[in-house]
Every structure is written in C-alpha cells, then in structure tokens.
Design goal:
There is one protein chain. The protein is an alpha+beta fold. The chain has 2 domains: 4-166, Aminotransferase class 4, branched-chain amino acid transferase, N-terminal domain (D-amino Acid Aminotransferase, Chain A, domain 1); 177-342, Alpha-Beta Barrel (D-amino Acid Aminotransferase, Chain A, domain 2), CATH 3.20.10.10. The protein contains 7 helices and 18 strands. The strands form 2 sheets. Strands 1, 2, 3, 4, 5, 6, 7, 8 and 18 form a 9-stranded mixed β-sheet that branches. The protein has a 6-stranded mixed barrel with strand order 9-10-11-12-15-16, surrounded by 4 helices. Helix 2 crosses helix 3 (110-123). 4'-deoxy-4'-aminopyridoxal-5'-phosphate (PMP) binds at residues 73, 233, 236-238, 257, 259-262, 301-303.
Length: 357
C-alpha cells in the first residue's frame, strides 16, 4: 500500500517548543499524523499522513461505548551527532496485534506499521529534541469507529499514530521512588485483559493510583487478583527484585503487560551471566528478604523511565527501605546499558536499534 502524504500548510504548522527543559510528557504533538482505515471485508485501506487534527467521530462510535481500543508507547531517540534511532519498534506493533486479538480488533502488518512510523517521524524530524534524555514519544492507537450500539465487535476501525517531543524523565538524577503495595483494589484477573494494552486496564488502575498518590507514593504495586499474594507489576512498569544473587520478575501468565523493557532487561541480565528468574514471587518473600537484608534492589522497567529504582516499599502499614533508599548497582548498570544502546552511543549486540535518519 502506498502511503499518501498531505503536508501541513504553513498556517497549520505549530510553533516548536524552544525550551527543552520544560517539555514534560504528553502535551505537545507534531505537525502531522498517520491514519489508516479498516472495514470488514475490505481490510486496511487508505494509509495516509495528514496535518495533525482533531478526529471527527460519530457519538455512537463503538469505542466510546464498549471500549474497543488498543495502543502502544515507544520512542525515537536523537544521538549526539544528530542521527535518529528507533528501539525495537516492530516488537511494539507485534504486541499491539496481540492486544487487538484479545479485544476482537483487526491486526496490522507490523512491517507496514514500522514503515509508516518511519515516514511520519522523518517528515517531522525537526521536532525530535536534542537535549540529553529527551526523545520523541510515539503513540500508535486503534479505535472502533462504526456507529452502532448493539454489543458485538465493530466492523470499522481507525488506526493512527501521533508523535510528540517529551522531556527527560529524570531531571535531577535517578531518584528512587516509593511504592505502595495495593491489597484492596486489583488491576486484572487471570483470563481478563491484563496482558493487553487497552483502555480498560488503565481505567481500572486510576483510583488506586490516586489514593496512593494522596498518601505520598509514586506508584502502586499490584498483587494477583485471586489471593492478593503474588507480585504482578506497578502502574506503567514491570517489576524486578534482586534477592541474594537472583534477579526475579513475575512470569507472563496473562495478567501483566509483556513489557519490551522487561524483555530487554531479562536478556541483558542473562547475557551478563547473572541468575535471572521469571517466577511467581510472593509479597511475603519480598518483605522477608527486605527484613533480612537480602533484598538488594527493586526496580521498575518501562519505556518512559527505562529503569526506575524503588527506595521504599510500603505493605500493610509498614515501610521497608530498599538499597538504603538509593539507586542500586544493577539498576544503574542496566539504565546506562539500555540508554546508551537507544541513543546510539554503544554497540548494540541484540540488534534492537534501527538508525532511520
Ligand atoms: N506495564 C504496564 C501496565 C504499562 O503500561 C507499561 C508501559 N507500556 C509497562 C508495563 C512497561 O512496558 P514497556 O517496557 O513496553 O514500556
């Protein structure tokens, strides 16, 4: 399929941010967006890049009623010499397809989606910020647009990609966060939507996150829905614990998101010859280890922060300090390794980075 491009007229072009230290996250979008339509029986058609604009949706569009929506989150990075890189972009579209299947939505061709993404990023390449730690955030999204109120999968969909510059996640260095172990609310039950990147999971997480924030915590750590016993993931990150000489993360049993950063960390840790386990981890085991001093580090992994060290875990009213409240050695080593691959500063033995400009 040929991707048609309609460039923004000079009067449609937006002012680019001048102070990259004030970029923040998720408020600024570039001049263009990619769109593509789907109709049952016809498949994906009319791929195009157009000036960024508001969508026009029928109030009966099925996404607004039954939540058929999937999305992704990834980034493009600018190296010191001005080169542009993507990191594991195809893997994001493969994950998007798995999410789509779970909520009865059509799959996209991941190679075509990467091609569309590259075209969009290159068209708006002057928007990719230059300061250390900044990047271009990419949000591929798919929604059900058929106007219909009977409950069934829709017959028509829109796939679009919007992009925008985002600030450095860590402005004052990598500060460890405080997390609250959530034992009242749950995010996702086995057999549910937990492993899909779809709106319902985020709606389900908001109240717990707000209540935790009011108590001074950055994120909640979710436990399994049935027993409130096994560690799952935190708000928008997968979780890793270093207990003795073992690095542990929860297995992909269906209720957590299969993070791309999670997979990168597992592969790097194994390559470094350390003991890496994907296994069920009881919250009591974490708390015991914290008490005994064998919990050496805890950290979250995700596209936004890469590695987010945890300095305190609070469970049932008790605070447990991790790694003396500082960033652990492995957390820092992993952060440096992944970031230097993403920004083209180091060789990439895994073939994760793609230079696109
Ligand atoms: N879990 C959830 C619920 C998330 O939203 C994210 C962010 N996409 C992650 C984990 C981390 O995934 P990734 O490493 O692919 O960003």
């Amino acid at each position: 399929m040929e991707i048609k491009v309609r460039r923004a007229e000079p009067n449609q072009m937006k002012k680019k941010p001048t102070d990259e230290s004030k970029l923040g996250f998720g408020d600024i979008f570039t001049d263009h967006m990619f769109l593509m339509d789907y109709e049952k029986g016809k498949g994906w058609n009319n791929p195009r890049i157009e000036p960024y604009r508001a969508l026009s949706l029928d109030p009966a569009a099925m996404v607004l009623h039954y939540g058929q929506e999937v999305f992704e989150g990834l980034k493009a990075y600018r190296g010191k010499d001005g080169s542009l890189y993507l990191f594991r972009a195809r893997d994001n579209f493969v994950r998007m397809n798995r999410s789509a299947v779970r909520v009865c939505m059509p799959e996209v061709d991941p190679d075509f989606a990467v091609e569309a993404l590259k075209k969009l990023v290159l068209l708006d390449k002057d928007w990719v910020p230059r300061s250390q730690g900044t990047s271009l955030y990419i949000r591929p999204t798919m929604i059900a647009v058929e106007p219909h109120l009977g409950v069934r999968p829709a017959y028509a969909y829109l796939f679009y990609i919007i992009i925008g510059p985002v600030g450095a996640y860590y402005k004052e260095g990598l500060n460890p966060v405080k997390i609250y172990v959530e034992d009242k609310y749950i995010r996702a039950a086995l057999g549910g939507l937990g492993e899909a990147k779809t709106v319902a999971n985020y709606a389900a997480s908001l109240l717990a996150a707000e209540e935790a924030k009011e108590k001074g915590f950055t994120q909640v750590l979710w436990l399994d829905a049935r027993e409130r016993k096994f560690v799952e993931e935190v708000g928008t990150m997968n979780m890793f614990f270093v207990i003795g000489d073992e690095v542990v993360t929860a297995p992909l049993t269906g209720s957590i998101l299969p993070g791309i950063t999670r997979d990168s960390v597992i592969r790097i840790v194994k390559k470094w010859g350390m003991k890496m386990s994907e296994r069920s981890l009881c919250i009591d085991e974490v708390i015991d280890a914290a008490g005994k001093g064998t919990l050496k580090e805890a950290f979250g992994t995700g596209t936004a922060a890469v590695i987010s060290p945890v300095g305190q875990i609070t469970y049932r009213g008790n605070d447990y300090i991790v790694a003396g409240g500082k960033m652990g050695e492995l957390s820092l080593r992993l952060y440096n390794e992944i970031v230097s691959i993403q920004y083209g500063e180091k060789e990439d033995p895994f073939g994760w980075r793609e230079k696109i400009g």
